[in-house]
Structures are given as structure tokens and as C-alpha cells.
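Researcher: Quick test of sequence recovery. C-alpha cells follow.
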């Protein structure tokens, strides 16, 4: 009886399941499976842009489906009615078959950049707006490839593919025998009409040897494909270049000097610098406006079909016209100072609010409006774009409305990477512009260091969308291994600014790190918290900002998370992805340790290049200094090593820029030099010595130079700067005007010379003595120098080296003493001092 019941339940259940699937089959559910004999149908290739897009999309789809299911799905251009009736067909891109179904074949049906994923019975259609030029995948700018977006979205949302970062390791491909779709009619189009993130500056655009490859090459192609997978594209471009000689040529100066800017009463021709033209037009000259209009219209006429947006951005640099009419255009708001010389941007125009000199907004936007009006009178479909940049970043107070055929591209870094205070300022500029301009764009900057800020990025794109911004181009981005979640959010938010950022983050982390996802999320959260504290735009902070925010404790915690995640993912593909973040951590950690070491060396009296914060001086022994130099050198080697490794592996983990490259290189050079001194048989002496002034000149008679002289009650002083800077200045010695103490002063220091040096010659080097001096070692006079400005006026800043072999005691305390005489100006020993050794011949 019990058995019977069980059997009938199973039978009932079986019937129910069969009925269900039968019903679904009857409704025409789409499958990809071996039984289905799937086939991809696309329109025949021809020379058109849309043909390229379709062919590319169909091939990508077939390649990915093979990786997922192992099935070879053929791509055809013709197909019989019977196959369509039996199902399993994937239509990629508009074709005669999709036209017959009225699925749409242009941006008028899909929306600009839009696409459709639709099941039709047991078949599937993936198609979209391919109307713009997509044939340039792998190049710098591109159009919309809606059919490809449909394919990418299908692979992502329905098949589980994830693109975490460019290249193989960043691509997650699930393995399945079969893919089934519910009845689907999914349509989408992008929120932003221009979605373009330029590649990470140095990784993708520099060869390993450092030469510039400017938006070409295989590495850049990987980036470009990644862009496309995340549905980046351009319906209406917002060019971000200066107009240069596009409408007025430098060589037209002779015929029309009045078209060019007037500087100090004279018209100034343009010249070339770094591949671009330098110089400006006379903005108030109506003939210049007309010339611009005419030449823009000519270019539009010649561009046939693909209508570019034309740049209205003045040339870079200063030298704006200072003729009376142009100055009048500037209005009374922020007057152009009369004493501005040479046409450079005068410091007086610097604006506290924006951080830029904004006096030129009125003239630039009056001029741009006039050009735009002239163009619109002839051709309403021509779009123009002007950057709101530098001296004209703020909205012009005397222009009520910017013409509708202008895109205002606001150059703004504060939104994405600014501190909370800077973020508000960045928003204010957009809110002000939104009152005047209909077409707003952002020229974003993502030169950042340290952590990811996915929530800030999403919030930024949502804010911008809400104020009407529809155009985005990032000047450059940076990859610090871990920051790819930021890129992905960045790209997705340009398509949909109202995305659920937490859901995207969760999804990304699960796909990337599997069993390590929770740990890596903690890693992200800590990074995000720290990087939200300060202005991460790397050229807007000092090197010290990094270790101040990324403290040793924070870095240690981050390292612990990485180690924990490595443990949890051991032996899997996920472990490789966790390890992909390791160089970025190493990079940050070594840089912070390097900077901290430099700042300790500075405190010890070793001179380091500008940029390292001054900390409280410390008294350090010779050994402590040597050890610190070795440490700084080790951190520097570690830092350089990571960069070299990533470069040689062409890794997408990090580029070579954490702070200003020149400054960083200068730090490195300093440490290399110090290390060379330390390792080449030398000792750097401590910076802090004992000191006593000797106005009565009794030092010699009292034996202040002697080995056993008691200097316990003497002052402490540093030998890396003048005594006037250390309590012996004009405050205490006003009788010498601004010169401070003039006269004799004594320095004493106790040092060890190691036993193993006993067979070598010993030299003492005083970094610089201002002005004359005498030196003793263990009471024995070893050197004397009398400053004679007629003989050598620069002697006060030159090192003084002399042999002390005979006076030195090895493996014992040595007392070194220097009497310095300063007759005027600054005085004392003021540069680091060394003991050097040389093998006896
Ligand atoms: Zn002028």
C-alpha cells in the first residue's frame, strides 16, 4: 500500500513535470544545447559600418558560447523556413529575417546606442543600433555598436560571463551544458550619449621600454575590447581637444594679423610647441567669428554621414587677446588686470572658489555663442563642443544662455576623486552651468592613488545625470590592480546611473573571488573608507598624504585580508585574481614606507628633495642613519621592482605613476646616491652635535677641542643648517641687524670608528663650512681653512675633505671638534658630514 502510494505520487509528479515542460516547449522556449542544433544568422558582410558591427558581434557570440558550452555554433547569412520553425536560431543584428518580424534596424527603433534581446518562439534575436561607426574597435574613439551591446548583455546577464578587467584572467566564463531563456523582451539604451574612458595612462600607452605608443597596439586593443564589453560607446561625440589650426591657420597671420591676439599692443603670430599650436584668436573680431562658422560648415559638409562634433575649445596656455574690444568682452565682473604682461594668465585672476583664474569665461562663451549661432543659421544638425576649462571653467556671468548646439564639457576632477569638501565644490560648478547650458558633459580625471571609491563614482554619475549631463570622457584612468571594480561601476553607471551599486559590487566579488569574496569585500570597504578621507587626485596632494592616510595599521590590515583571501581560494582561479591585487598593495606599501623613511632621514639631518614634509629633528647615531638609508634604499628597490615586474608581464595591475613621476624619481636618485656613499666605504655622521658660541675667544686656551673636555652643558645643534636658524639668529643677536650671531662657534661630536677599518686611510668631509674653520680629532689639529672671497667666493658652500688617519683611534671613542668663524651673513656647518675610507695602496 505504502509502496503503491509512493509510486503514484511519482507518476503524478512525472506527469506534472512533463506537462509543464511540454507547455513551455509549446510556448517556444529558447535553448542552447547539443539537441537544439543552434545556428547564428547575421546579414551578409558588406562595406558598411553596421555590417562590421554585426560580423564582430556574431563572431564574439560564437566564440564565447563555445567556451561556455563547448558547442561549435555556425554563423550563416541564409537560413531556411524549416530551421526557423524548428527553433534554436540566434539572429545577430538586423537582417531581412528580423526586418520581416519588424524588430527594428536603426537608432529610431532602439534609441541611440540601444538594443533588444528578444525571444521569438524558440529563437532569439540580439540586435541594436549600429548606425554609428563601430569599425574602429581598437582605436581611440568609436561609435555605437548596439548589436554587440545586445550580445555582451546576453552573455553577461543570461550566460553568467563577467568581464572584471581586460585580458584573460579578468574574464570569468562559466561552463554549462545548456543555456535556457525564459520568454524575454529586454530593451535598453544608454543614459549617456558619450561614454568614453580613455585607457590607463601608462600601462596601455607605453611600451616596456617606456616609449609612447599613443592609443595603439595590442594592449590598447585589450582595453578597447573591454570598453566595448561594458557597452562604452559614442552616439554624439564630445571632443576634448583644442581647436588648434582647424579653423584658422598659423600661416594666415601675414594676410590677417587682426585675426590673432594682441599682446602688449602688437598682434602675435602663433608658434608650435609639443605638436600643438600656441596662441589665440582675437575673440572680438566679427570676421574671426564668420571664418570659424564658414570653416566648420565646410568640414560638416565634407564629413558625409558620420557627423563629428566640432571643437570650440581655445588653444591651451595663455596669450589671450588684450585688444580693447576683447577686454570689453570680459566685462566688469573679474577685470583683466592692466599690468598683466606678455599675455600670460596673471596670478591676480586666480579664483578661490574654483581654484582657477576665471576672468575669461565671459569672453570665451560670448565668442562660442556667436559661432554657434552662425552655424545653426545654416545647419541645425551640426554639434559643437567647448570645454569649460582653466580660465573659463566657471559659468560666464554675462551670458544668460549657452546655445543649444554647444556641448559644454566641464573639466572636473573633484567629483570622482575629491575629498568630501572638494566634491561639493565640484557639484556647485555643475549646478551653476546647468542653469545656462542645455548640453552638459564632464571631462573626468581619474589620476588617483590608493583605493577604490565605487559608491562615489556611482553617486557622481547619478548626480550628473540629474543635472542633465549626458556626455563623459575621462582624460585617463589608472589601474592599481584592485581598482577595476571602480572602472566597472564607472562604465555601468554611464549606461544606467540608477544602478544598485551594492548589488553590482556583490556580483563582481562573487564572480571574481568565489570563496574569498567576503574577505575581499572587507578589503574593498577599508580601501574605500580611507580613500574617501582625502583628495586622491595625485597631483593635488603631497607624497606625505599617502602614509598619513594609508597608515601602517591600515596597510597591515589590508595585507591580512589579502592573505586570508589567498588562503580561502588556494589552488583556484580565484586565487590568481586575489593575487592580481597583490602588486597594487605592494606598490602602495613600498611607496608609503619609502616616503616615511625619507622623512625620518630628513629629521636626522640628511637633505632630501623638496616634497617631503619637515618633521621634528631627531638625534640619531651614525648607525641609525646608515640603517635608515639602507631601509629607504630597500623600499625604493621594492617599489621599482614591482613596476618593472608588472611592465614586463604587461599586467593590468599597475601603471608607473603613484605620485608625480619626476618628484618620485628625484627621491629615488637621492636615496641611490646616499646608499652609494654608505656602501662605498663611508659613514654619514649624525646631524646633531654639541655646540657653544665663543664670543670671548677662549675656546683654544680652555682646550674645547680636547678629547676629554666636558661639553655636557653645551647646546645641541644640527650641522645640516646654519646656526642662525637654530637659536643664534637676529632675535637673540639683534646688534648685527639681520645677520644673527657673528664670531666663533664650536662643534663637538663623539664617534666610533670600527676596528675593521684599521688598515684603511680615513678622511673627514665637512659638507660645508660658512666661513672659516679649524678641525681637531682627539685633540690633534687636522685641518684649517681661512675663507678668502677674492680667492674663492663660493668656498662657503663647498665640501671640505681632509685625511685624519693618524689622529683616529679604532674601536674606541673619538672626539671630533670644529671651530667655525662667521664674519657676516649666515654661519656654521650647514650640510651633512661624512667619514670616508680608502684602501691603502
Ligand atoms: Zn581682440
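Model:
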Amino acid at each position: 500500500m505504502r509502496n503503491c502510494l509512493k509510486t503514484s505520487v511519482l507518476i503524478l509528479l512525472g506527469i506534472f513535470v512533463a506537462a509543464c515542460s511540454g507547455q513551455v516547449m509549446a510556448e517556444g522556449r529558447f535553448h542552447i544545447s547539443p539537441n537544439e542544433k543552434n545556428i547564428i544568422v547575421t546579414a551578409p558582410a558588406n562595406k558598411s559600418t553596421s555590417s562590421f558591427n554585426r560580423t564582430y558581434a556574431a563572431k564574439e557570440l560564437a566564440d564565447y558560447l563555445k567556451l561556455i558550452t563547448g558547442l561549435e555554433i555556425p554563423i550563416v547569412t541564409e537560413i531556411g523556413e524549416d530551421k526557423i520553425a524548428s527553433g534554436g536560431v540566434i539572429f545577430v543584428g538586423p537582417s531581412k529575417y528580423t526586418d520581416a518580424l519588424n524588430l527594428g534596424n536603426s537608432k529610431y527603433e532602439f534609441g541611440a546606442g540601444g538594443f533588444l534581446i528578444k525571444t521569438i518562439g524558440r529563437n532569439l534575436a540580439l540586435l541594436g543600433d549600429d548606425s554609428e561607426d563601430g569599425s574602429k574597435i581598437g582605436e581611440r574613439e568609436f561609435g555605437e555598436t548596439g548589436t554587440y551591446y545586445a550580445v555582451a548583455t546576453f552573455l553577461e546577464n543570461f550566460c553568467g560571463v563577467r568581464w572584471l578587467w581586460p585580458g584573460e584572467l579578468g574574464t570569468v566564463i562559466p561552463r554549462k551544458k545548456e543555456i535556457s531563456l525564459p520568454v524575454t523582451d529586454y530593451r535598453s539604451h544608454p543614459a549617456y550619449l558619450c561614454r568614453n574612458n580613455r585607457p590607463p595612462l601608462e600601462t596601455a600607452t607605453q611600451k616596456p621600454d617606456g616609449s609612447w605608443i599613443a592609443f595603439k597596439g595590442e594592449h590598447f586593443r585589450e582595453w578597447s575590447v573591454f570598453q566595448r564589453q561594458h557597452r562604452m560607446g559614442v552616439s554624439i561625440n564630445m571632443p576634448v581637444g583644442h581647436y588648434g589650426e582647424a579653423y584658422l591657420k598659423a600661416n594666415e597671420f601675414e594676410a590677417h594679423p587682426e585675426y590673432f591676439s594682441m599682446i602688449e599692443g602688437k598682434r602675435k603670430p602663433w608658434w608650435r610647441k609639443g605638436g600643438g599650436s600656441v596662441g589665440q584668436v582675437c575673440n572680438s573680431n566679427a570676421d574671426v567669428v564668420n571664418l570659424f562658422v564658414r570653416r566648420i560648415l565646410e568640414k560638416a559638409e565634407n564629413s558625409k554621414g558620420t557627423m563629428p562634433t566640432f571643437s570650440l575649445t581655445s588653444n591651451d596656455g595663455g596669450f589671450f587677446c588684450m585688444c580693447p574690444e576683447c577686454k570689453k568682452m570680459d566685462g566688469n565682473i573679474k577685470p583683466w588686470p592692466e599690468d598683466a604682461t606678455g599675455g600670460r594668465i596673471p596670478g591676480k585672476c586666480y579664483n578661490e572658489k574654483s581654484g582657477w583664474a576665471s576672468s575669461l569665461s565671459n569672453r570665451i562663451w560670448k565668442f562660442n555663442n556667436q559661432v554657434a549661432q552662425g552655424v545653426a543659421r545654416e545647419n541645425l544638425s551640426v554639434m559643437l563642443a567647448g570645454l569649460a576649462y582653466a580660465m573659463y571653467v566657471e559659468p560666464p556671468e554675462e551670458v544668460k544662455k549657452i546655445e543649444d548646439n554647444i556641448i559644454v564639457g566641464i573639466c572636473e576632477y573633484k567629483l570622482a576623486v575629491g575629498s568630501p569638501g572638494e566634491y561639493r565644490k565640484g557639484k556647485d560648478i555643475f549646478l551653476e552651468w546647468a542653469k545656462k547650458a542645455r548640453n552638459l558633459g564632464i571631462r573626468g580625471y581619474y589620476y588617483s592613488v590608493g583605493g577604490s571609491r565605487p559608491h562615489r563614482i556611482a553617486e557622481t554619475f547619478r548626480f550628473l545625470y540629474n543635472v542633465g549631463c549626458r556626455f563623459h570622457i575621462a582624460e585617463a584612468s589608472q589601474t592599481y590592480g584592485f581598482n577595476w571594480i571602480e572602472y566597472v561601476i564607472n562604465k555601468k553607471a554611464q549606461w544606467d546611473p540608477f544602478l544598485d551599486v551594492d548589488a553590482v559590487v556583490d556580483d563582481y566579488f562573487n564572480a571574481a573571488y568565489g570563496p574569498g569574496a567576503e574577505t575581499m569585500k572587507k578589503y574593498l570597504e577599508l580601501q574605500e573608507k580611507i580613500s574617501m578621507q582625502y583628495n586622491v587626485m595625485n597631483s593635488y596632494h603631497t607624497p606625505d598624504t599617502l602614509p598619513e592616510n594609508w597608515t601602517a595599521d591600515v596597510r597591515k590590515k589590508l595585507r591580512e585580508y589579502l592573505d586570508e583571501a589567498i588562503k580561502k581560494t588556494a589552488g583556484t582561479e580565484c586565487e590568481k585574481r586575489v593575487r592580481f591585487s597583490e602588486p597594487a598593495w605592494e606598490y602602495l606599501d613600498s611607496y608609503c614606507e619609502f616616503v616615511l623613511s625619507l622623512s625620518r632621514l630628513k629629521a636626522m639631518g640628511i637633505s632630501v628633495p623638496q616634497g617631503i614634509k619637515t618633521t621634528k629633528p631627531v638625534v640619531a647615531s651614525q648607525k641609525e642613519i646608515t640603517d635608515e638609508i639602507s631601509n629607504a634604499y630597500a623600499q625604493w628597490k621594492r617599489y621599482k621592482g614591482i613596476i618593472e615586474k608588472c611592465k614586463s608581464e604587461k599586467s593590468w595591475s599597475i601603471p608607473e605613476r603613484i605620485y608625480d613621476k619626476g618628484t618620485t624619481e628625484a627621491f629615488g636618485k637621492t636615496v641611490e646616491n646616499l646608499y652609494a656613499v654608505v656602501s662605498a666605504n663611508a659613514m654619514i655622521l649624525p646631524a646633531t652635535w654639541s655646540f657653544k658660541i665663543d664670543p670671548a675667544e677662549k675656546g683654544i686656551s680652555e682646550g674645547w677641542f680636547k678629547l676629554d673636555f666636558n661639553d655636557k652643558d653645551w647646546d645641541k645643534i644640527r650641522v645640516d643648517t646654519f646656526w642662525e636658524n637654530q637659536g643664534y639668529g637676529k632675535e637673540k643677536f639683534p646688534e648685527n641687524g639681520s645677520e644673527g650671531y657673528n664670531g666663533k662657534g664650536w662643534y663637538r661630536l663623539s664617534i666610533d670608528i670600527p676596528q675593521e677599518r684599521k688598515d684603511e686611510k680615513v678622511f673627514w668631509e665637512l659638507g660645508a663650512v660658512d666661513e672659516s674653520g679649524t678641525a681637531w680629532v682627539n685633540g690633534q689639529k687636522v685641518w684649517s681653512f681661512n675663507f678668502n672671497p677674492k680667492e674663492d667666493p663660493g668656498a662657503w658652500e663647498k665640501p671640505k675633505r681632509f685625511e685624519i688617519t693618524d689622529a683616529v683611534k679604532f674601536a674606541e671613542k673619538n672626539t671630533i671638534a670644529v671651530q667655525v668663524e662667521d664674519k657676516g651673513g649666515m654661519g656654521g656647518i650647514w650640510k651633512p658630514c661624512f667619514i670616508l675610507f680608502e684602501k691603502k695602496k
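Confidence is low (pLDDT under 50) at residues 1-27, 202-215, 334-358.
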